[in-house]
Amino acid sequence: MNRIYMIGFMGCGKSAVGRRLSFLLKLPFYDMDKEIVRQTGKTIPEIFEEHGEEYFRELETKFLQNFKNDHCIISTGGGVTMRKANQKIMRNTGLVLFLDAPFREIWRRIHRDPNRPIVRQSTREEIEELHKARYRDYKQTAHITIRTEFRTLRQITQYAAFQVKRLKGE
Ligand SMILES: Nc1ncnc2c1ncn2[C@@H]1O[C@H](COP(=O)(O)OP(=O)(O)OP(=O)(O)O)[C@@H](O)[C@H]1O
Ligand SMILES: O=C(O)C1=C[C@@H](O)[C@@H](O)[C@H](O)C1
Ligand SMILES: [Mg+2]
């Protein structure tokens, strides 16, 4: 299959870059978190509160297993690489693009957002640890890593499009 997956920590720019890339490459765009909210009829905080994180992780895996569309861009949830099964599905069904943003920038973007259960329940130090702990999985899962510091959304999107075309041999 021929998908493009955007991976990376919360707030790294997956949705913003994914949307722009979808215009540039003329591919439909999907946001995994939004699809899960649509399918369950619950918000992410509600899913975490009512069923716990493991249940949410299971929904993510089910989404990846059952999603049928090809030739599209999928912005994933920040914890999607926690499961090896998810890493495998993504690498086997498309190109995986990791947006590597510095933690202080990520924190600035996410720390006040009430819709992020993991951030709401943790200190800055704990979230920084989580970022560190996940970093290797993002790197290992990705076909393409883009460092976003000092780059505008437009520059990141253009670079992403260039790398995608290069890897597809276009
Ligand atoms: N390189 C950048 N320069 C300036 N602003 C950026 C950049 N990347 C992202 N942003 C802004 O940071 C915010 C978070 O980006 P976005 O929502 O795309 O992240 P995300 O990875 O999809 O986060 P999540 O899915 O966890 O909510 C947005 O307001 C976005 O416009
Ligand atoms: O980093 C995470 O674990 C998460 C990121 C969000 O995209 C959501 O998928 C959810 O809030 C969990
Ligand atoms: Mg997003």
UniProtKB/TrEMBL annotation:
Which UniProt key words apply to this protein? Amino-acid biosynthesis, Aromatic amino acid biosynthesis, ATP-binding, Cytoplasm, Kinase, Magnesium, Metal-binding, Nucleotide-binding, Transferase
Instruction: Paste the cofactor note.
Output: Binds 1 Mg(2+) ion per subunit.
Among the GO molecular function terms of this UniProt record, one is:
kinase activity
Positions that bind substrate: D33, R57, G78, R134
| Pathway(s) per entry | Metabolic intermediate biosynthesis; chorismate biosynthesis; chorismate from D-erythrose 4-phosphate and phosphoenolpyruvate: step 5/7
Q: Where does ATP bind?
A: G11, C12, G13, K14, S15, A16, R116, R151
Q: Tell me its cofactors.
A: Mg(2+)
What this protein catalyses is: shikimate + ATP = 3-phosphoshikimate + ADP + H(+)
Q: What is its main location?
A: cytoplasm
Presence of keyword Disulfide bond: no
- The answer to whether keyword Cytoplasm applies is yes
Q: Where in the cell is it found?
A: Cytoplasm
Where Mg(2+) binds, per the record, is at S15
Per the UniProt record, which EC number(s) apply here?
A: 2.7.1.71
Reported function:
Catalyzes the specific phosphorylation of the 3-hydroxyl group of shikimic acid using ATP as a cosubstrate.
Of which family is this protein a member? Belongs to the shikimate kinase family.
- The molecule here is called Shikimate kinase
Q: Whose protein is this, by species?
A: Planococcus kocurii
Q: Which gene encodes it?
A: aroK
